[in-house]
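Can't paste images in this forum, so I'm doing it all in text. The chain is below; anyone willing to post the predicted C-alpha cells underneath?
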Amino acid sequence: MPSEVLAECSFVLTRDEDREAGFQRYLSKERAEEIAAYLDSGLGTIPTSVILSAQPDSEFEYISKNRTVSFNKIDKAFMIIDGQHRVYGFKLAKGTMRIPVIIYSDLDRSEEAQLFIDINGKQKQVPPELLLDIKKLANTQGGTEKKIGTVFDLFDSEPGSSLLGLLSPHEKKTGFISRVTFNSAIKPLMELFGDAPPEKIYEILNPYFEAVKSAFVKISNDIEFTSPMTFRGMTAVFPEVNEKVRFRFPGEINQKSYHKYIIEILSGQKLAAFKGRQRSHAGIVSTIKDAMRPRSLF
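Text version of the structure:
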C-alpha cells in the first residue's frame, strides 16, 4: 500500500476519536521522527509488514479474480494492530514508498483487541548482542562503535590476549564477557584514546586486564572477573590506575606493574562490592578510588 494512503486511512487503537490526536497523544513522536528521518535518508526501508484491521465503513473487499483489494479511501478505514510508530513515521516522512501490509477483515472489537494482545504481548525482543553482530555484518556501525568492535575482535582472536576464551561475541552467557558488556565498558574510554587505532588500544589495555585477572586470583578466589559489573568497574578505573602506576613505577607500564599496584591498594580492603549479586559497577569504582587515596601517616 502507498505510504501516504496508509497514513491517511489508518488510526491507532485508542479511545480517542481524533486520529491525529491519537497518534500524538499515545505514541512517541521522537521515535516516529527517527523512522521518518531514516526513510528520507535513503539508507534503507522497513520491510516488516504493518498489520491492519479493516473497518466496516471501508467496505474492504478481496477480488480473487485479479488478486486485488478494494476499499473506500476514507479516514479510519483501518485500525493499526501492529506498526503504529512506523505508520506515524510514514506520515511525517517527506518521501513516499510502498509498504507491505497484512489486512484482517470482519473482526469485531474483542477480536481486534485479542489480536493486538497476541502480537504485541508475545513478541520477544532481539538480544542486543545479536543486534551488534548484525550491525557489524550490515556495515552500519558508527565510527566509535566500529572501532570498539575491532578491539573486541582482537581480544577474541589474538594468541596473547588476556581475554582469549572469556568473550562471547554472539550472545549473553554466564562466565563470559558479551559484546554488549565490552562496548559499555570501553566506550567511556574512547575519548582518552583519541585517534589511536584499535591495535594500539588493544596493546594498551591487554596488560591491564591480565593484571586485574591475576590480582583477583591472588586476592580472593570468589571474585568473578567476567561478571559484567566487575569488568565494567575495573575498566572504568583504568585511567586513574594507569596514572598511579606511571607515578609509582616510572618506565614500567606493563602487566607486572599493574599487578603489583592492584595487589597493593586492595590488600586489606573490604571487597563486598566485587561479590554477590551486583546491580551496578559504581560500588567497585568507589572501592578502587577509595583504595588509591593516600593513607594517613598517623
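Confidence is low (pLDDT under 50) at residues 15-25. Residues 167 and 177 are 5 Å apart (CA to CA).
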